Amino acid sequence: MLDNLRTVLDDVTIDAPWELTEVFSKFPRWKPEDVNASCDMMVERLKRHGVPVTVLEPELYLSIPYEAAVKAAGRTYRAKPPAYSRTTAGLEGELVYVPAAYSKSVSTLFQKNQDPNAMSAERLRGKIVISEGFAFPQKMREFEELGAIGVIAVNPGVDIHWGICTSIWGTPDLDDLPRKPGIPVAAVNNPDGQALIELAAKGGKATIVTRLDEGWFRQKLPVVEIKGREQPEKFVLLHGHYDSWDVGVGDNATGNATMLEIARVLWKHRDKLKRSVRLAWWPGHSTGRYAGSTWFADQFAIDLDENCVAQLNCDSPGCRWATEFKDISWMKEAEAFAQAVIKEVTGQDAHGERPHRAGDYSFNNIGLSSLMMLSSTMKVEKREEMGYYAVGGCGGNIAWHTENDTLEIADRDIMLRDIKVYLGLCLRIANADVLPFDWRAIAGEFLETIAKYQKGAGAAFDLGPARAAAEGLKASLDRFHAAIAAKNVPARRASDTIQALARILVPVNHTRGPRFRHDPATPVQPLPAIALAAELGGMPAETRGFALTTLRRGQNRVVAALREATRLVDGALA
Fold first, then answer.
1. What is the pLDDT, as a whole number, of residue 2?
2. Cα 24 to Cα 31: distance, rounded to the nearest angstrom
3. Homologous superfamily of 5-58+219-431
4. φ, ψ for residue 212 (rounded to 5)?
5. Distance (Å, rounded) from C-alpha 280 to C-alpha 237?
6. Which CATH number fits domain 63-213: 3.40.109.10, 2.40.30.10, 3.50.30.30, 3.40.50.720?
7. What whole-number distance in Å separates Cα of residue 82 and Cα of residue 70?
8. Which residues of 204-215 are buried (b: 16+ CB within 10 A; e: fewer)?
9. Are 394 and 319 in contact (CB under 8 A)?
10. pLDDT for position 105
């Protein structure tokens, strides 16, 4: 392996990334024209450092939120409309309260949290629902399906957080359009929300007012390609969004600056790269549910399929008090590698988790091994000391998605450290003789998942075929990785096999839909085609037969994928 990590890391400085962070801290980046202007700022800086950059200009379907209010009992409450909320000059309705729990950590932030006993069409139909939490799409979708005419989301603190309430991933296609939200949604802060909840208990009414601009917008998408010397067609994709809510320093000016510095350093050391590194800055993240990265995944799908060896998402690095690497998103095959690099660069241990269906992970249906999303974060003890609740970025700072995400959220020393982490990960993947992803870990995870689902199913459904297929894959992978360690498999053949395994195993483990489509922005369980087995024990008798049919079809998908992967591995050993 071309191991020049320390030499390259020593060239990282904080000067250029901090200067961009300061500039962005004074420049809001959520209106389409401002997003394009901020792209020009980054492009000018890349060119100043001699880094060639290509600016693509896709047409993206976006929802730009401007203002909202909730009027009730003679008062007007300040509010924010999440992107994709429906515009209304005034929708009046009776309030109905659906209790919900606030998430304790980012690990559960995107899960359903409302009281199921309060969820019925008889109770919600024709009403404006008020419920605790952020305006995340799964909850908003369920309220709408049960007949709610509007929703008020009560955020956890004194601030109101911007967000997006559609489950559609990226620009909708014709199949997605029926899921486009059809009701107005407004977010309020906690004190105002509690007053409205009290009003709901008395049978009170409220009026929601929202104003958004929804339609097609031409947005700029800068891409830097730094070619490798030995396999220039193969590339690592490093990416992050550059549109933000307001000035969005911790989410994601620090990420934009991190990628700027990595582009500068890698361009300087391009002679040291075996494979290529491609960097892309996305528009449409905040107002289009990852519209920029989704467009890129669609536009360059075949190139990504054939040549991308891994993707890394750069979101919210370099934030104040973010002293540890905990709850980092990575796929299981990348875990040991990521932990080793973070340990080497920082001296710290790192903890990761299964990636959420969020954060510009727009490549799961293609089948890319993936790591990183949110970056370093503050310790639980610090969060408790500050009285913070769980949020989805900014290193755990509750300035996330608010107008308070300003320059003080960034930390120069932490940003410098996090730049080196991302750079180290990119360099080590690009320069590995054999791609550093261990599929034995995912085969072991499959066996654990199947055992868990079988316990839930009991005698009602036999997951034996899936278990046998996973055991067969694990045995073949044990032989494969042993042969790699003994150098009995040519490095390029081994890497090609590892990449090809991702195209089979990532979709079966992280997606419900077919390849080259985009699943909704709702949680996906491991091996989702058979996840229903865990629920069989508590399922009503009248639906069990239909569930068993679903599981038979799902198990067929899983078994076929695992057997295909096994044949691929055995072929590499032949």
1. 41
2. 14
3. Zn peptidases (3.40.630.10)
4. -135, 160
5. 8
6. 3.50.30.30
7. 14
8. eebbbbbebebe
9. yes
10. 67
| Widest Cα–Cα separation across the chain | 78
What stretch of H or E contains 278? strand 275-282
**Length, in residues, of the chain:** 574
d(CA 338, CA 344): 10
Q: In DSSP terms, which residues pair with 100 in a beta bridge? A: 114
- Quote the tokens at residue 306: 């054939």
Which residue is listed with tokens 């300003």? 406
* Extended strands (E) in 315-460: 325-329, 350-353, 370-371
Taking the C-alpha atoms of residue 272 and residue 2, their distance in angstroms, rounded to an integer, is 7
Q: Please give the Cα distance from 365 to 512 (Å, whole number).
A: 9
Phi, psi at 191, each rounded to 5°: -60, -45
| Non-local CB neighbours of 262 within 8 Å, separated by 6+ positions | 238, 279, 419, 422, 423, 426
Residue 485 CA neighbour count, 13 Å, CB half: 8
Task: Measure the CA–CA gap between 290 and 282, rounded to whole angstroms.
Answer: 8
- Edge-to-edge strand order for the sheet containing 221-226? 54-56, 221-226, 275-282, 231-241, 308-313, 370-371
Burial of 305 (C-beta count, 10 Å sphere; 0-12/13-18/19+): middle
Residue 211 CA to residue 182 CA, distance in Å, equals 14
Q: Of 205, 193, 213, 257, whose CA–CA distance to 416 is shortest?
A: 257
Q: What is the DSSP letter of 532?
A: G
| Cα distance between residue 334 and residue 441, in whole Å | 9
* Residue pair 143/151 in contact by the 8 Å Cβ criterion: yes
The span from the CA of 317 to the CA of 257, in Å, is 9
**Residue extents of the structural domains in the chain:** 5-58+219-431, 63-213, 439-573
- Residue 221 zone, left/alpha/beta (φ > 0; ψ -120 to 50; rest): beta
The span from the CA of 89 to the CA of 63, in Å, is: 17
Predicted local distance difference test score (pLDDT) of residue 111: 62
Low-confidence ranges of the chain (pLDDT < 70): 1-3, 105-112
Residue 327 Cα distances to 171, 336, 351, angstroms? 29, 14, 6
Other C-beta atoms closer than 10 Å to the C-beta of 378 total 22
Number of neighbouring beta carbons within 10 Å of residue 57: 12
- Rounded to 5°, the CA angle 52-29-45 comes to 25
**Residue whose tokens read 């047409």:** 59
User: Taking the CA atoms of the chain, what radius of gyration do you get in angstroms?
Assistant: 24
Identity at 170, one-letter amino acid code: G
Q: Which amino acid is at 265?
A: V
> What are the backbone dihedrals phi and psi of residue 202, each rounded to the nearest 5 degrees, phi first?
-95, 5
What DSSP letter does each residue of 92-127 carry, written as one string?
Answer: EEEEEE--BPPPSSGGGTTS--B-GGG--HHHHTTS
CB 330 within 8 Å of CB 257: no
Q: Which CATH number fits domain 439-573: 1.10.10, 2.40.370, 1.20.930, 2.40.160?
A: 1.20.930
d(CA 418, CA 133): 30
